[in-house]
Each structure stands twice: as structure tokens, then as C-alpha cells.
Amino acid sequence: MNDAVLDPQDTGPSKGLDTISLLSSDERLKGRPKLCSDCGLCDSALKGRMSSACIFVHNQTAEIEQRLHGRGRRPDDERRFGIHRTQYAARMRQPNPQAQWSGIVTSLGARLLEQGTVEAVITTGAAPGTRFKSEPVLARTPAEVLATAGNKPCLSPNLRLLDQVREQGIKRLAFIGTSCQVHMLRAVEAELGLEKLYVIGIPCSDNVTYPDLEYFLTQVSRSPQTIVHYEFMQDFSLWMRHEDGHKERVNYIDFPMDKLHGIFPSSCLSCFDYPNTLADLTVGYMGAELGWQWVLARTEIGEELFELIRPELEIGELTSSGDRTRGMPHYIARLTQPPGAKKPPFLVRQLVAYMQRKKGSKGLEFARAIIEMKLLRNLNYVRSKFPRFEARVVPEHVYQTLEPYADKYQEVFGRPLAPQTEE
């Protein structure tokens, strides 16, 4: 089997690629790993470290966690959420209307600069003339950080800015980024010459190229060109806010998956760190109730970051309800079907969506469900598309987390869930 080539139907609608290299027709991306999230490391002077730092060449999560924490994950929620000291439900008392949620991440970056704790913040802004096209930003003022508020769910080569950090003599740096970026950053951290590094992680799943994002929005919205904000919410639906203020909502079960197949990069489908576990502080939402953000302080620096922003926060309660395990066997069986296959009639989908909101997992149980589903999906993807890569890109905690579903996995796929060692 030649796992260096994808079938044409497995490529994004806007890319028309027949190789697994992301945007492989782009000269800039030549020589990259077969799985590439365009993190930016290969655009920097650290390109030579790609083979020893890239999460898609060798996943070093366990080794980096040992260095950060002096231990591995405990056999509880740490297998799903990553090592953490404390976790909270929180939101800004005075929300930033431009932010994706309440503005914790950008407010924290701004405070670090205001107080002189850091000299610069690497973050992600929007390219001029667009709302969602990612552009790496090296912010030197609080205003520059606040100007980047809002989600840009596209691949962004933020690590290329490490060259500017070195050239400008920056010694105290904050980095805001996705899990693959953070993995690479941690792998080269000792070589950056920094006196202090603060890493704020954003949970990330299935970022896309900008053309594919535009394509996605045309498939799910009646007015894609007027969308100013959107998010995949905890009530099993996509919320979209438009220029005139009205909100559009589409249930997950109503997504035209047959038309969306192929828009997600192979790297994102081979990633096993949705919760951004190598950050100092992770700020997301999946583990919190609607309207709240989910904050995990993972290190001593993470606790320091949280205490810095705490006076501006309203602290809520983390809750957990529902039973994710009831629906997981059905989900595993669906992984064998083509995307969009056997879509139920409209009224049935409406009933399913209602029951998901009424009886489905909420709070921390919702986070457990989403993380386990993504682990299952991505493990299946790696095994079907890149089987030779499994030992290098799938960390051990994935198998430990999914072990309760081993029998169902064996029944559906005819092979063990646990990795098979070669004789």
C-alpha cells in the first residue's frame, strides 16, 4: 500500500490535490512532512529541527509532559484533558464584543504586555480585508493583541515569527496558539534563548485552509458572506451571527457531510491533542456550560497566568451530566460508513437534535465525549490512510483512553484497538 497518496475524493473541494502534502503545489511547502499543519517552524531558521520537533513526524507529548510536570498522566480525566493543576468555568466580567467568547485570551495577552511581564505576544490576527483568514502577529502593545480578538479557524504559520523574536532581541515572550504549534514550540524551547515563555493554548480541531473555510460556510449557511462570528456549540449545533445581528443555527446532524468530506487537512485528522495539553494555560469552552469558558491551569506558570486575569473574571461552576458511553458504540459503527451516508429524514433529524440537547452530555461529560470521538475518528483515519505512521504519531494515552470501547472496536473493524506490534 502506498500511503503517500490520497484518492482524489479524499482531498478538499477547493484544493484538488492528489497528494497528502498540504497545498503541495505551493513551492514554499516543498520538503515538508507528509502530514503538515503549516505551523511555521519550517519557515524559520529552525527548519532543520523539523524531523525532531514535528508532532507529525514523532509525537513527543509524553516526553514533553515529563519535562514540564515531572510525571505522566494519571489514569483519570488527565488521559483525556491532559495534566492540569486546576480547572475552572470562567468568563470576563466585561466581555469584549469582538472576542469569540468573552475575551479571556486576548485580555490576558494584553495584561502581560501592560505589566511588562512580556515584551511581545505571538498570536493570530485576520488578514486585511477578511474576517477569518489567519495571519501570524507579533504584538508589542496591548492594543495590537486586543485587535486580534475573535476566532480565525484557518491554518496559520505562527512559528515563523520566532525569527523576528530572535532578531528583535525579545527575551520574555507569550505565545497563543494551537496544539500542534505548541508541541513544536515546546520541542525547541531550550534553543530559543528566552528568559521566560508563557504558553496560552487554544483547544483546536480541524482547522482548514481559507478557501476551504469559505466553501464550508457556503454549505452550512444561507448567507455565508455576512457571517461575522460562528462557533460549534455545546448544544450540538453550529451558531452563526450575521452582520445585521441575527443568529442562524444549524444542528450538527443536519450538516451535509457528503459535501464536506475532504475539506479537513490530513494533519488535523491525524492529531490527538484537541485540549492543547502542553500549554501552561488552556482556554476553551467544551467542558463548560453554555456561555462560559473552560480554563485549565496546567503548570505553575499557568496558575500565575490565571491569577493575573482572575480579578477580571466571573468564576462559575464546572458541571457534568449525561452518559457519553451510551452513544459511543453507534458512533464507532458510523466510522465505517461514507460521510453523509444514510442521512435520516428531516423530522427524524429534528427529533434527534432535540434529544441531544435535552438528554445529551453536558459540561465535562460533553468534553469527554467530544475528545473520545475525535480520538476514535483520528485513530481510524491514521490506520486507514497512514498505517506506517501509527507508532510515531499516536501517543499511548489514546489507547488507554479508548480501552473501554475495545470490544466494540474489535467487532466493527475486525482488529484490536490496541496497537499491533510487528514480530
UniProtKB/TrEMBL annotation:
Pfam families in alphabetical order: FrhB_FdhB_C, FrhB_FdhB_N
GO molecular function: oxidoreductase activity, acting on CH or CH2 groups, with an iron-sulfur protein as acceptor
Residue ranges occupied by any Coenzyme F420 hydrogenase/dehydrogenase beta subunit C-terminal domain in the UniProt entry: 171-313
Domain Coenzyme F420 hydrogenase/dehydrogenase beta subunit N-terminal as annotated: residue spans: 88-162
InterPro entries tied to this protein: Co_F420_Hydgase/DH_bsu_N, FRHB/FDHB/HCAR-like, FrhB_FdhB_C
Domain of life assignment: Bacteria
Annotated protein name in UniProt: Coenzyme F420 hydrogenase
